[in-house]
Design brief:
FAD/NAD(P)-binding domain, single chain, alpha/beta, six-stranded mixed sheet, 18 strands, 8 helices
């Protein structure tokens, strides 16, 4: 059995640590922050993707379909199935037409039902389609992760810094630090690659009771989404354009100094730098309830994607060997974490 270090305490790192430890290896998990799941793993749209979102990337759709069953099996107690999920296909400026979206659903055997729900999606601006997806409760996920790590015997190190000495202490190293992958690789003297980094805002709001725990995506283009914030009465907003405060392609994220105190710091109340009003102005055109949104606060994190993927919106899950001892995990889809963890364990 091997001595294994997993670097990164997000969903992909913790899940990999659990599955590797279940295979009988001795596993230690290293996280630079003071708790697990503090970054993109729990600052997102909390949607467990089944592939509806990616009509322009068949590979991402198939990846979602392959991973979602494993995810639900592993983290069932954090899965919420009580929300209504709707996709609104914008009548203008969408990169996918309604006919193309429905064809995408049919080809991939994704259940759907065209609906007319003007109180939720304005039919003047988008066609509504009801789908079968689930949502994620980040609080329940945190509890599950910690109990599974303890049960598997994984030793967890918080506030941990990584340097080259880690390569002398372990037989294998699993790198799952997402936006910080390059920082870790550089610290242990390995080559790094360019990514597209996006400093993103995720407003958290209250909505009128008539919204009724609904999750809506307006697609396919520069539009928005809104969905339940766990099992609370709040909702998280997303927007393809307004969410991104800064973007760059390079070896490290370019983070505006004013936003650094906000990053990965939970819900920031009354943030000075917010685009909440832009979210509302853009979203109310499609989703009437957004006009009544009350801003509770915003979350901020760095989202990382492969560069030059805008044409297809491709979001692959990659498990690769950096060298004979180091395995790197990179993915932007939470529902693929168990599939990735199994691949890591197989390599070890």
């Amino acid at each position: 059995m091997a001595r294994v270090a997993v670097v990164g305490g997000g969903l992909f790192g913790t899940t990999a640590a659990i599955h590797v430890a279940r295979r009988g290896h001795t596993v230690q998990l290293f996280e630079r922050r003071n708790d697990l799941l503090q970054s993109a793993s729990t600052i997102n749209q909390y949607r467990i993707h089944r592939g509806y979102h990616y009509p322009r990337s068949p590979e991402t759709t198939q990846s979602c379909l392959a991973g979602v069953g494993l995810f639900v099996e592993e983290y069932r107690d954090a899965v919420m199935s009580d929300s209504r999920h709707l996709y609104g296909i914008a009548r203008e400026d969408s990169k996918t037409s309604l006919e193309e979206f429905l064809h995408h659903c049919e080809v991939n055997k994704l259940p759907y039902r065209p609906v007319n729900v003007p109180e939720l999606i304005n039919p003047d601006h988008a066609d509504a389609v009801e789908v079968v997806e689930d949502s994620l409760d980040p609080g329940a996920l945190m509890s599950l992760i910690k109990s599974k790590l303890a049960e598997a015997g994984v030793k967890v190190h918080l506030n941990a810094s990584i340097d080259g000495s880690i390569t002398d202490q372990f037989d294998r190293i699993v790198l799952a630090a997402y936006a910080a992958n390059n920082s870790v690789l550089a610290a242990i003297g390995r080559p790094i690659d360019a990514y597209q980094f996006e400093v993103c805002e995720k407003p958290v709001v209250s909505l009128p009771s008539s919204f009724r725990r609904t999750d809506i995506v307006i697609m396919d283009g520069p539009f928005m989404s809104v969905g339940p914030f766990g099992r609370s009465d709040l909702y998280a907003l997303g927007h393809v354009v307004h969410a991104i405060h800064s973007t760059n392609v390079g070896l490290q994220p370019d983070i505006p100094a004013a936003l650094r105190p906000y990053l990965d710091n939970g819900i920031v109340r009354d943030p000075q730098f917010t685009r909440f009003r832009e979210f509302v102005d853009a979203g109310a055109r499609f989703i009437p309830a957004i006009a009544e949104a009350r801003h509770v606060g915003s979350m901020y994190t760095v989202r990382t994607v492969l560069p030059n993927r805008d044409a297809t919106d491709e979001r692959p899950t990659l498990v690769s060997q950096v060298d004979e001892r180091i395995i790197q995990v990179f993915s932007g889809k939470l529902s693929n974490c168990v599939e990735a963890a199994r691949a890591v364990a197989d390599l070890i």
